[in-house]
Structure formats: structure tokens, C-alpha cells
Amino acid sequence: MPTYQRVLLKLSGEALMGDDAYGINRATIVRIVREIQEVTALGCEVAVVIGGGNIFRGVAGGSVGMDRATADYMGMLATVMNALALADTMRQEGMTARVMSAIGIEQIVEPYVRPKALQYLEEGKVVVFAAGTGNPFFTTDTAAALRGAEIGAQIMLKATKVDGVYTADPKKDPEATRYTSISFDEAIVKNLQVLDATAFALCRDQKLPIKVFSIFKPGALKRVVLGEDEGTLVHV
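^ thats the sequence. predicted structure below, dont judge the formating
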């Protein structure tokens, strides 16, 4: 029996790259989708917010010298591409997914409408939220916090490359230890960069706990949803 009945999973675009330099690695996206499928099989309702960093970084690389808002809109379109790939892979794996975009591209994906998203979740469909918040200057972390609060998710699952929040960078400091759980206030005092400041403040204000875990660790998502000791829980 899952500990959480409804979760918001935040996936970075980079998570889809696997070992590739950019783009979408087929084996990696299939593996991630199967991890999500394991969780939906438990009866847990899953919504996903996907980033676009594997296709276009809004403020780096090719966007140097570009207007920030324009670059961010390009980044939003990249998340739509990732959302379509994710939903199509889910379809191939026998799941039903719906992509909802914060910016209007009706010929490709349906617009984000909150009651419709809630209906899909209640029907057991996976909802993939694309295009961030639909506004420049906001990250997909903030979009995840916003959508998580809107759909009444019990927890926001932040999928990363590391298996939790550490006392120091584990790659640089062999003495670094993982926090099993930490409060929002402690994370601020210790200056632990769990999410960007806007997303973090939104989660704290809405009392939406965050679980930071590694999407590259097989079975980690399922263990998180079952309430096992996996990753780091950031709570009120």
C-alpha cells in the first residue's frame, strides 16, 4: 500500500539524456517510464513536471546574448518536446498519459486546465505538465511546486542525480552524510540548495513536503512512494 496516494514527480530534462551529451536516450526514457509504471500499479496517482535542459538551457549555451524572456520561452517549448516523448513512451508501455501545456499549442497538446487534470488523475492516467508555469523567469522547479499545490499532491518528488541531500558535496567530501529528513527552516539555515528559492518558498508556504532522491537508482521511486528510507525528506 503506497504511503502517498497522489504525487508530483519533478524530472529534469537532463534525466532523459542517459550518458548522451544531449537529447533523449531511448533506453533511459523507457527505464524511467517503467519506474513510474511500478508506482501507478500500486494505485498511486502520478503527475509529472518535466524540464527541458537536455534540449535547450534557457540561460546558457546558445542563448548567450539573447533576451532572457525569449530564451525562457524556447526552454518551455523544449519541455513540450520532452513531455510528448515521455507520454508516447508511456503509451508504448501500456499506460495512459495526458500532456497538458501551460502555453497554448492546441494542435499538439491540450492546454492546462486544473479540473481536467484532476479528473485525469482520478481516472488513473498519468498527467505530464509541460511548458513550466507558462511564464518566463520561473524555473520548472517552481512549476512543479505550483502544480503540486494545485492538484493537492501529498508530496513533491524531486528526481536528481544524487540520492538525497547531503551535509556537503559527496563528490568532493568523502565525509559527507545524507540527511534522512530535514526541516525547511534547517535547510535554509544550512544553505542547502534543495530547489530554487521561489519553488522552495512555495513548498514551505503550502506545507508541501519535498523528497529528494536519485532517479538513476533502480526501484528508488517505488521505495519513496512506499515510505521507505530512500532519499531525503524536506518537511515543515
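The first helix runs from residue 26 to 41.
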